[in-house]
Amino acid sequence: RGQTVESGGGSVPAGGSTRLSCRPSAYTYASKCMGWFRQVPGNEREKVAVIITGGGVDHYADSVKGRFTISQDNDNTILYLQMNTLKPEDSATYYCGSVSCNIITGGNWRANYWGQGIQVTVST
Description:
Layout: E1 5-7, E2 10-13, E3 18-23, E4 33-39, E5 46-52, E6 57-60, E7 68-72, E8 79-83, E9 92-99, H1 102-105, E10 111-123
Parallel strand pairs: 2-10
Antiparallel strand pairs: 1-3, 3-8, 4-5, 4-9, 5-6, 7-8, 9-10
């Protein structure tokens, strides 16, 4: 069984940018909705951005709207999160995964997370 390949993140100054990427194994891919989530110690994992595969529709948490952009490569095998104008409160471990499309309309949702997560630390 293949492994999810993740990259990006690290330590970034406030106001800076970074791009996260996630390439799940072929065995875990093929989901209609995919997204990025983040978690800080002591808090629940929260939605950051969701995209409908091949549908050109994306959805964001209010806290990142206008600063983050979720996208896929042309083959829909790699999921990206472009993060601009970073703030210290964006510091978290970021996870990619498939998710119930209900998340877009505010309904109950469930996610299947891929990989070990990517640490992003935004310094002042």
